[in-house]
Amino acid sequence: MAELKPCPFCGGEADCNNSGFMKDGKPMWAVECLTCGVVTELCGTAEEATEAWEKRTEPVQSWTPVAERLPEKRRWCLCYFKYEPESPDVICENFHYGTGGWLSEGSRVTHWMPLPKPPKEQEAGE
Ligand SMILES: [Zn+2]
């Protein structure tokens, strides 16, 4: 298989695999970054997943439902917290322990995504 482009978020190595990706009870393919864990949409074949990864010119971050897939163990993520109907939902950094769940408000986390890159420092004398 052709070499995959590096991750648009962290420059890490990407891997096309079908381990752990399920949709409607069927195993699915996706390309994921081995460093930060960002992942493409789930695809029916490895070729589709590779295409989805390669054609992405702009980094697109999207929410992953926790019911569909959890982040890797011991990783900071951006989490979406669903609160009561009368209080607004919250987007906040959170730590995923793995089997231990989340650092805070685990029961309220509905979605997650990898943390975005920090802003670039302004070049001196710009
Ligand atoms: Zn990455």
A few lines on this structure:
With 126 residues, the protein is mostly beta strands.
Task: Please tell me about this protein's structure.
The protein has 126 residues and is mostly beta strands. It has two domains: 14-54, no CATH class; 64-114, no CATH class. Helix content is 7%, strand content 30%. It has one helix and nine strands, in the order ββββαβββββ. It has one helix at residues 46-54; strands at residues 14-17, 22-23, 26-27, 30-33, 64-65, 75-81, 90-98, 101-102, 109-114. The chain has a five-stranded antiparallel β-sheet, with no helix packed on it. Strands 1-4 form a two-stranded antiparallel sheet. The model has no long low-confidence stretch (mean pLDDT 86).
